[in-house]
Write a structure and sequence with these properties.
heterodimer, A: alpha/beta, 2 domains, 13 strands, 33% helix, B: mainly alpha, four-stranded mixed beta sheet, two-stranded antiparallel ribbon, 6 strands, 63% helix, 5% strand, elongated
């Protein structure tokens, strides 16, 4: 798949503070790429460099084949982290305005604005002033304003923040629509569930550095599958088990087992039966993105939040 | 449409939809109407009838009659003037009122003179209430020959606000003043008027009484010395005829008229308009920028257009707002003046008078002279200077409070040309005006004020070139600041940082 966005050892400092350090990233055409990281990880700075709003101190950038997004800004859509629109403008008008800034003609921009509003359940509010909308509706309008010109690359900075579950679902549908249309989406978030559901690939940042880049299953494999095991006999020791690399005794008859990558929890259960260990609990805990995220950025994130 | 023009159009429409824009448009004509009509209205409606007590303690006892006759003549003249104002717009086509001959014709006489010239639907004239009206002297205030005793009683009466019966209706009224006329200290000395009132602001009654007594005394003195008072009156009525001439005007047309007076003073009005326009639209620009900054629209805009396009678009859009406001002000000044002159009926009374010709002269002045082009040019150049600075400083601030710290300093800086408005027309090519003209931030206002005085071409061209160069430099520096500051968050930039942004590389 062709690469639409590539960062190679990109760095950016503000005075003595190193916001982004040697960040590398590849985003393939038509994919949804998650940009994960705690507050202060460098996500917004990275996105601003990608958009050409900030110049990197070092490293190389390529956006839709151009060294700067400024040259291809009409093919890029952007939703900033903090949302805001002209309060006195009407919904259709504001969407059309931003689409026109991206090169669309007046009539086409207006047509697309109305069509997008209709498609996403806001048709009745086309002529309503932005100041009359609820926060969620306003945010939806802003998302539509960022995609009305039909961008090839859509960059969404924390698109789900501040949305209720219903509107989060609507936004997920918009992202899925964009993907189905062939657009590439890069979005930053610290909501792991959404990243797991939506992303083809993801990058995890911490302290301005890239800590991981890959698919969700690849991320999961960074941590072992854990099994919580409890025996009826408090003194029983299951002994070495197949595939188990770490065996921690938590208390009388309670164990926490960590499996090697690729090991099958079923073979551990089988071995327990073969050894006539009477089990009261056998709980397999699949690694999720949250575990991986905390594992990768936990200490750094706490440090950053104290800064 | 280019992105900069799109931003300009949105900026224009965004401002044009606000109540502030329409208030700004209506403000100048409204102020013009208020400033010109309210004092007149107050003079007609707002001044209550002043009741006074008059005591004549002179040996002859004729002074009270002199004063009352004088006041009556004044009221007749006032009634006559008010009748002329009322009658002028109600005349039949082609008819006119008798010219003013100074004889003080009373309004009932005038009414009978023009009775056949009035429109059938003219209605009836209501004469104005008299400004001053004497009261019937109460018994407690009788003159008993002792001044100290009388004035003691009078002071108590006035202090306590005791009512007196009014001469006309008999209803009790509170005295505005009490006047006591005494003989002069020596033989042949003019009488003494002792005027008691706690109102020191309205001196019209006191002045009228003093004028009546002075005239009568002079008339008596002329008679005593064998001089015919009528003859003296005729001689004293003679006035030197003044002809104002301007050597810069074409041969044969040197006489200074209303148009010349307008040309002399109109630029000052335009400097006010220029100042208000530049100040008002710079504030609009700042508010718009701070709104976009605080709700992060700027971030989306900068992902769509370059900071320079954004800055140019905003400057153009708000400039258009300012231009529309200024044109509306100028147009409304002419229209409101025409309406006020038309509704006064002065054209029917004195069609060749300066006031009747004012709207036409004003329109001719705007059409023929350099005032409008100069106004347009200096508006654009002045606006660019100040708005670029405000935009750059505003881009470093995250809220209006921070920004107002900067704009307060700029407003103080802008006060200098405002203060100079009145003295520059008196010496438009003097050293102060010339010096101020060469300071680029003041050039638009000062040169606008000098435009009627034909300043030397060196000053006109030189200051213009300097102003254009200054505008280019300021725009360049401000664009560099704007580009760096527009997405910045946190504390406002320090002066050192601003300098680095302007003069640093990149």
């Amino acid at each position: 798949m062709p690469v639409v966005l590539e960062l190679e050892r990109v760095s950016k400092s503000f005075g003595d503070f190193r916001a982004v350090c040697d960040l590398s990233l590849r985003v393939e055409r038509g994919s949804v790429h998650g940009f994960l990281g705690p507050n202060g990880a460098g996500k917004t700075t990275s996105l601003r460099m990608i958009l050409g709003m900030l110049l990197p101190d070092s490293g190389r950038l390529s956006v839709l084949g151009s060294p700067s997004a400024l040259a291809v800004r009409d093919r890029v859509g952007y939703l900033p982290e903090e949302k805001g629109l002209y309060r006195s403008m009407r919904c259709a008008e504001v969407i059309a305005y931003f689409a026109r800034l991206k090169g669309l003609g007046r009539s086409e921009a207006t047509r697309r604005a109305r069509s997008l509003l209709e498609r996403h359940g806001l048709g009745a509010f086309a002529m309503a002033k932005v100041e009359t909308l609820s926060k969620g509706m306003g945010q939806k309008v802003q998302v539509l304003a960022s995609i009305a010109h039909g961008p090839e690359l859509v960059i969404l900075d924390e698109p789900f923040s501040g949305l209720d579950p219903v509107n989060q679902q609507v936004l997920e549908e918009i992202v899925s629509d964009l993907k189905a249309r062939g657009a590439t989406i890069l979005f930053s978030t610290h909501v792991m569930a959404q990243a797991e559901r939506l992303c083809d690939r993801l990058s995890i940042l911490g302290g301005g550095r890239g800590l991981f880049e890959g698919t969700v299953p690849e991320a999961r494999r960074l941590l072992p599958v854990r099994i919580a095991l409890e025996t009826s006999d408090p003194s029983a020791d299951p002994g070495p088990l197949p595939g188990v690399v770490v065996r921690d005794r938590l208390g009388a008859g309670r164990w926490s087992l960590a499996l090697a990558v690729g090991a099958d929890p079923g073979s551990v259960l089988e071995a327990c039966f073969e050894r006539s260990i009477r089990l009261r609990r056998f709980d397999v805990h699949e690694t999720d993105l949250h575990d991986v995220f905390v594992h990768l950025v936990g200490p750094g994130a706490r440090e950053a939040s104290m800064r | 449409m280019s992105p900069a023009l799109l931003i300009a159009a949105r900026e224009f429409l965004g401002n044009a939809r606000t109540r502030g824009f329409w208030f700004g448009i209506l403000m100048v004509p409204l102020l013009w109407v208020i400033a010109s009509q309210v004092p007149l209205w107050l003079a007609r409606k707002g001044t209550p009838t002043r009741h006074f007590a008059l005591f004549d303690a002179t040996r002859t006892g004729g002074s009270a009659g002199v004063i009352l006759r004088h006041l009556r003549r004044m009221e007749e003249r006032r009634g006559s003037m008010r009748f002329r104002e009322w009658a002028a717009p109600r005349l039949l086509p082609g008819r006119s009122l008798p010219t003013i001959d100074g004889s003080g014709t009373s309004w009932p006489d005038l009414r009978s003179q023009v009775a056949g010239s009035m429109r059938p639907d003219a209605g009836g004239f209501t004469p104005p209430e008299p400004l001053h009206r004497p009261v019937v002297l109460p018994a407690g205030l009788a003159w008993r020959g002792d001044l100290a005793d009388f004035e003691g009683r009078l002071r108590d009466w006035l202090r306590e606000g005791r009512p007196c019966p009014a001469e006309d209706r008999g209803e009790p009224v509170v005295l505005f003043a009490a006047a006591l006329v005494l003989d002069g200290e020596g033989p042949g000395d003019p009488p003494v008027l002792r005027f008691w009132s706690d109102n020191q602001a309205d001196t019209s009654l006191r002045d009228a009484m003093a004028e009546a007594l002075s005239r009568e005394h002079r008339r008596a003195e002329y008679g005593r010395r064998g001089v015919d008072p009528a003859l003296v009156g005729q001689v004293e009525a003679a006035r030197a005829r003044v002809v104002d001439l301007n050597p810069r005007k074409a041969a044969g047309q040197e006489q200074v008229g209303l148009a010349d007076q307008l040309r002399q003073w109109a630029p000052s009005v335009f400097v006010y308009l220029l100042w208000i326009a530049v100040f008002a639209v710079s504030q609009m620009l700042l508010n718009s920028l701070i709104e976009e900054r605080s709700n992060r629209i700027l971030e989306v805009l900068v992902s769509s257009v370059t900071p320079l396009q954004l800055m140019v678009g905003k400057l153009l859009g708000v400039a258009a707002v300012g231009a529309v406001m200024a044109l509306a002000w100028i147009g409304s000044l002419v229209l409101v003046t025409a309406w006020m002159v038309g509704s006064s009926g002065i054209a029917a009374v004195a069609p060749d008078s300066a006031i009747a010709r004012l709207p036409l002269e004003l329109a001719t002045l705007l059409g023929d002279s350099w005032i409008l082009p100069a106004f347009g040019l200096y508006f654009v150049l002045g606006y660019l200077f100040y708005s670029a600075v405000i935009l750059a400083l505003g881009s470093t601030c995250s809220d209006l409070k921070e920004a107002q710290n900067f704009t307060g300093v700029i407003a103080l800086f802008m006060m200098v040309p405002l203060v100079s408005i009145t003295f520059i027309p008196k010496d438009p090519n003097g050293p102060i005006a010339t010096c101020l003209s060469w300071i680029p931030p003041y050039t638009p206002f000062v040169m606008m004020n000098r435009v009627a005085a034909s300043p030397p071409w060196f000053d006109v061209v030189g200051t213009l070139v300097l102003l254009v160069i200054s505008d280019i430099l300021v725009l360049w520096a401000c664009a560099r600041v704007f580009r760096r500051a527009v997405l910045r968050t946190g504390q406002p930039a320090s002066l050192a940082q601003l300098a680095r942004w302007i003069f640093g590389r990149g």
